[in-house]
Amino acid sequence: MKICMIGAGYVGLVSAACFSEFGWEVTCVDKDKNRLAMMKAGKSPIYEPGLDDLISRNMKAGRLLFSDELGPAVSQADVVFLAVGTPMRRGDGHADLSYVYQAVEELAPHLNGFTVITTKSTVPVGTSREIERRLRDKNPKADFGVCSNPEFLREGSAIGDFSHPDRVLVGLDDERAREVMARLYQPLSLRNAPVIFVSRESAELAKYAANAFLALKISFINEISDLCEHVGADVQEVANAIGKDRRIGDKFLHPGPGYGGSCFPKDVSAIVRTAREAKSPLSLIEQVSTVNDERKLAMSGRIEAACGGSVRGKKIAILGVTFKPNTDDMRDAPSLVIVPMLQERGASVRVYDPEGRKQAEPMLPGVLWCEGSLAACEGADALVVLTEWNEFRALNLSAVRERMTGNILVDLRNVFTPNAALEAGFYYVGVGKPVVARS
Fold it and tell me: Model-level pTM?
């Protein structure tokens, strides 16, 4: 089986590498010369654990190629994946499908024999049918089927998610396409991974519905954490108690400074827009986005309150700026709201992130970048944890406290326990927990 992957971004590159690991021949096509140069050298342009090794191994085996030539890759392919960006469109919040349709226009003349055109990109309901219409207009003689095959990859654990998925979802209404897609995912079927075939509309909507529900869980536990602080409960104890209910589950019940990343913000916005256009508004999901935006704004106020009501003239150490650990992705990261607000209110900010500096530096002007956690804490009046990288959990808080001028620890990810912070001499502010101060 031969695959053409159009787009070497996060989804396209991970998918291409994993398909080649299955034994399929994959050509990944991208227009970015710098990205292509890196990938041809066996290096990933994005940080994802294990991806460099996967790329290098399959390139050496001759199963994974990178190219800027679309025609040859499409003409030889059994399956062509569309894995280009679908960012939030300015003005109305819907998904911008211009890159998808541009790829469709460019691939149409090169179709040769029966080919399955499959969207990996997250696209609104109806996109697959519009792709089909455009292909038929552009190349009436082409023999093809159009599928929706949304990805469910978590940044930081994408290779494991692809290789051992909860499910593989394929939307189609063409029997020949079904046979091709069943063969494509046979390596996973043999491991008893469920491959679910549904209509194209169901597959497209399911992706948005899944992300909207997970975003809902995050906003829910963030609001519960605020209530915990007012009534004397511990949000981690509450989350553990309700998470044991199998109807609820314990995933995405970790309070913090709000969600970010490449998916949740734009996908929540897109499903809200789709619902409005269908005259079936999703008022609950609309509120999720509002709660999340307000959450990020409130976190800078929480830091200011911990510092006695003002951060003017204070030195603030920030640990972690990416939207989550094990990625260098800065898209809609809470730090992009919180750090500038601290700067506007007169604070000087020192930052350390294990992988995020390259992406974050142009987005966070005026901060001092440090080479490690202890260096960031040097002379700081307050320490703020924004991203729960594992290496932060191993910090010696007593050593951290000795480096600092002040004793304020604002832990927006509940990385540390209040007792450990207290023993190290900190005034500790967590999320959904009582404030702890040394007597």
Answer: 0.92
